[in-house]
Amino acid sequence: MKKLWGGAFSESTAELVDRFGQTIHTDLNFWQEDIIGSVAHARMLGETGIITKEEAQTLIDGLEKIHEAGPEALKMDVEDIHTAIEMKLYELVGDVAGKLHTARSRNDQVATAARLMLHNELLIVLDLIKSLQGELLAQGEKYKDAIMPGYTHQQHAQPITLGFHLLAHFWSLQRHGHRAEQLFQLANYSPLGAAALAGTGFPIDRHMTSTELGFTAPIPNALDATSDRSFILDALHVCALIMIDLSRISQELVLYSGREFGFVKMADSVTTGSSIMPQKRNPDMAELIRGRTGRVIANWVTLATVMKGLPLGYNRDTQEDKPPLFDSLGKVKDSLQLTQLQLASCEWQLDAMKAATRGDFSTATDLADYLASTGIPFREAHEMVGQVVIGCNDRDITLEDLDAATLHAINAAIPVEALSVLKPEDSVRRRESFGGPGPKAMAAQIERAKAIFEERGFCSIA
Fold first, then answer.
1. pTM above 0.90, yes or no
2. 274 annotated active-site
3. Among this protein's residues, is 153 annotated catalytic?
């Protein structure tokens, strides 16, 4: 197996050693970024006179030909992507290819490619977040008046609307977009030129390569530049947070599509069947998103565990930083698209949702609030409503079934006017506090969400 080292070794490494240390197949995820970094480095070598401008142009021309040919033209029986590209460059331009590695190391080279790759991937993730937000916003507005139960502890709590529920997911995605943008800026510093760990004696221009590659600036300390993997940990953390919320949406789709809820029907295009039960329509994609979230969370833990004991300076352990990153980014991109596809296919069962709020005692808080509005301390009102709930259960009726006589029999201190606050739709209409599901509050929230959605990026919502 071809390597970029070995001059001081008197014997070849064992086959198992070669196989265990080989990374070429995972490195292909950033083959383009490695070439882009090499082009910038070659141009800088020519501009600073470290090599001639003619040699630099020869290297650049060769690298561009490699890029045009694609990864299929690279040899796979090599140690890593850097070796594969350099070997191909030798085939194209001859011995001058050996000058490309002047004043750099694989240590700063791989860190540069990883940062460039992350930037490109984050742009895709940001677009997918925005697209999913668009679906949630459209449905949030469409179903802003559709009554459904609101849950705490997975028990009926208070009536809300489907639009209100969906917009809650819109805002969580806004935070994830904001985090991803902050990560984009935080990772936007160049390690190129840090070499192995202590820079180089050649008169390189790190600011030139940093500018050409679109970085904000070079990382000030060469040892830190080659040692740092916090930007990958940050990316894995953002991926885990996104997947956690996509998993929560998935869990709701799984629950709501079951007969026990019957709140939604999902299209054939996003569900699967059973090999022995012809009637089944399984929400497998939602379940897979939910399941694979565990792997994305584990990827963050994996790299954190790798990094926690490493002293400064490049350590081969950090070879384990990129497979988790590639895996997490891939799962996030697929899951964002699948979640949008599932939501777009949903046929919400609005009548079933509304019917689920009947007889569930979810307007008990409204009754307590009404009593508190008459001057009764809320804690006393809370206890009085508890007595009403017990009285209804004893009579096998619901709050909506109460009439004046029954209410008086349960607790004569509660005025009959209190019966006017017990309908779920009226409960929703009264909740006009900022961020609530009431018509005016929802109109304001939708207007704000539209304004934020139409902005180019993801501003903070605080």
1. yes
2. yes
3. yes
